[in-house]
Each structure stands twice: as structure tokens, then as C-alpha cells.
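RECORD TYPE: inverse folding
INPUT: C-alpha cells
STRUCTURE:
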């Protein structure tokens, strides 16, 4: 791992926080892990108090305030965990959490109470074997999602061991990897790591977490190209964040940049009710307004699904605006469909009489 900034004192020394904030930031850092890699620290404009990269990674004293409805485990990982390392929320897929360490710690992370050095341990040999046995014993599991923490901070050898274990389970057809590493520490995407990802012979997808176009630096683009050129399709997930990407122009630039890097935007997440993150969350109404502003104005390739993880572990649901409404049966029509300019059209169209 490249040498990262990991403490309040290092943030102040690096000009990323004012000295008068030191005491408050030490309290934040004692509660939630801090790490900012040189690649991301170097992107921050220190003269801009609203820099969107700093807002995502530099701790804020506002994190000490608990917002209404916030939960330590907002999407119910623990309630859906049949054994350590596994979250089985949906019938045909599981999460396999190999580590709780990341290259960077996002200030809005929904697993912020679980991730970081000294929080939960990585899956050791016996627990990994038990997790693999669980997957083997459940033939309905079609897809395994490696997440964490960030699985791509693991060594190529460790990843290869996991991929080979999955290779031996016939009913697992897809391995999906959720990561921030190509952005946070692009040098870690080595040819050996790419080979490790491909070593199972399964279809592997890498889902990149990116929230602002500036994160796609030349080095990050090259890291992603190493994956895509090796035949690994990439998707993205972004979190809608106040003061980072909650305007249509910023989101459009992010989504287009991702597609230009051959990464298909997959999810735009509404911010989860993670503790101390209310200053970063938008409203659902604002999210719908933004999704509506992008619909039709950006290529379909650039459109992610706007989704909310229902608190308590009930899974994701799409929460984007609706373009369809029913009309009274007595009118003889069935639906009204709205187009991207706000025009309303009856479907099926009325008979022309010819
Ligand atoms: S990289 Fe992912 S798991 Fe790690 S802190 Fe960021 S959002 Fe959380």
C-alpha cells in the first residue's frame, strides 16, 4: 500500500485541515477510520473549502453528530449473515467479505462502524473455509460478490486462493468485485492481480466506486484499462452526496467520463443512514429531480439505476422518478407516458380511425 495519511495530525500537517480543528478531528478519527492515499490527497485543491474530493475523504467534526434514524449497520449486514464473512440477503447471490480494511475511508461509508484497522478481523483460513462451505451448500447461489472492506487491497496470491476455491463450486457462475482501489491506489492493479482475478475461469465483473469525474485521473484510467483490456467488464456505483455530485452537470460529467473509460454506470445510491453522515445526504426528492434531469439528455449508456437500500436489510429498490401513470378505465386508454421533455402521451395511442 502507498503511504497514506491516517491521522488528524497528519491531515493538519499536510494542509488538509486547519490546526484549530485538530482536537475535533482526533475525536472523529477515534470513532471512524481515516485513510487518504497520496493519489487522492494529491487531487485535493487545498484553497477550496468545498473541494468535492476533500469532502469525501477528509473527516469533518459534523461526523460526531448522530442524525435522525441513523444506524450503525444501516443496511442490515449482520442480520443477514448466516456465518462470518457471508451476507445472504437475496436468493441468488451472497456477499463474501474477505477483509474490513480499505485503501481509503469514505466519510459516508455505510459500513463505517465495521471497517478500518483494528475493527473486525480479516477472514482467516478456518473462517474462509466455512464461508466457502456455506456457498457450496447453497446451490441457489449463482453470484458471489467480493466486498469488504476493499478486496483489491489483498495480495494477488490471497485473491487467487479465493478465486480457485470458488472455481470448484459449479453453481457459482459470476464473481463480482466491489472496489475503490483503481482510483485510490491505481498502482495496486498489477498484471499479477489481474491474473488472480481471472484465475477462477468464472465470469468476473469489477464494480468501481467513483463519485466525481476528477477521481478518474490518468493513473486511475490506466488501472481500469488494465482490467478491461484483460477481458474483465467494469461497472460503476456512485453515491449521491451533498456538496460532491448533487447537481446535474457534475453527475453528467462523472457518468460520461465513466463510459469513456469503458465502465458502465450501474447504480447511483441514495446515501445510507450511516451514523454521522447527515451533512452529506440529499433528499430523495432531490435525487429524483437529478435523475429526471439526466433522463433523455445523456446517452442510455450513461444511465445508472437510482436506488435506495431500505434500512434494516430489506434490499435495494429503485427510487427514480416514474414516467408512467394509469388513466381511468372509463377513458378507454390505459396509460399516460411522460417523455424526457415533460410531454405526456397516451399509450396505446388512440385509434386513428383509418
Ligand atoms: S472503500 Fe467502500 S467499504 Fe471502504 S470506506 Fe469507502 S465505501 Fe466504505
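DESIGNED SEQUENCE:
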Amino acid at each position: 500500500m502507498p503511504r497514506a495519511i491516517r491521522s488528524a495530525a497528519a491531515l493538519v500537517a499536510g494542509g488538509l485541515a486547519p490546526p484549530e480543528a485538530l482536537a475535533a478531528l482526533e475525536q472523529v478519527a477515534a470513532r471512524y477510520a481515516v485513510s487518504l492515499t497520496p493519489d487522492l490527497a494529491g487531487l485535493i485543491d487545498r484553497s477550496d473549502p468545498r473541494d468535492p474530493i476533500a469532502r469525501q475523504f477528509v473527516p469533518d467534526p459534523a461526523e460526531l453528530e448522530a442524525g435522525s434514524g441513523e444506524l450503525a449497520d444501516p443496511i442490515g449486514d449482520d442480520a443477514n449473515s448466516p456465518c462470518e464473512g457471508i451476507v445472504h440477503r437475496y436468493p441468488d447471490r451472497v456477499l463474501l467479505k474477505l477483509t474490513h480494511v480499505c485503501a481509503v475511508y469514505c466519510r459516508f461509508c455505510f459500513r463505517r462502524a465495521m471497517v478500518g484497522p483494528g475493527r473486525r478481523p480479516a477472514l482467516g483460513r478456518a473462517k474462509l473455509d466455512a464461508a466457502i462451505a456455506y456457498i457450496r451448500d447453497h446451490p441457489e447461489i449463482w453470484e458471489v460478490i467480493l466486498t469488504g472492506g476493499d478486496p483489491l487491497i489483498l495480495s494477488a496470491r490471497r485473491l487467487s486462493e479465493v478465486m480457485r476455491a470458488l472455481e470448484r463450486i459449479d453453481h457459482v457462475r459470476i464473481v463480482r468485485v466491489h472496489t475503490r482501489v483503481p482510483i485510490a491506489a491505481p498502482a495496486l492493479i498489477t498484471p499479477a492481480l489481474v491474473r488472480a482475478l481471472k484465475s477462477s475461469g468464472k465470469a468476473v465483473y469489477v464494480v468501481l466506486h467513483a463519485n466525481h469525474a476528477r477521481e478518474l485521473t490518468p493513473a486511475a484510467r490506466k488501472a481500469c484499462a488494465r482490467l478491461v483490456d484483460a477481458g474483465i467488464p467494469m461497472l460503476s456505483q456512485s453515491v449521491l452526496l451533498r456538496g460532491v455530485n448533487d447537481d446535474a452537470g457534475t453527475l453528467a460529467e462523472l457518468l460520461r467520463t465513466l463510459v469513456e473509460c469503458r465502465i458502465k454506470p450501474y447504480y447511483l445510491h441514495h446515501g445510507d443512514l450511516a451514523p454521522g453522515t447527515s451533512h452529506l445526504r440529499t433528499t430523495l426528492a432531490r435525487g429524483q429531480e437529478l435523475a429526471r434531469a439526466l433522463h433523455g439528455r445523456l446517452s442510455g449508456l450513461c444511465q445508472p439505476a437510482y436506488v435506495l437500500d431500505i434500512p434494516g436489510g430489506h434490499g435495494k429498490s429503485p427510487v427514480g422518478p416514474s414516467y408512467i401513470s394509469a388513466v381511468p378505465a372509463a377513458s378507454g386508454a390505459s396509460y399516460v407516458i411522460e417523455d424526457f421533455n415533460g410531454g405526456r402521451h397516451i399509450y396505446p395511442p388512440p385509434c386513428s380511425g383509418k
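NOTES: The first strand starts at residue 86 and ends at 90.
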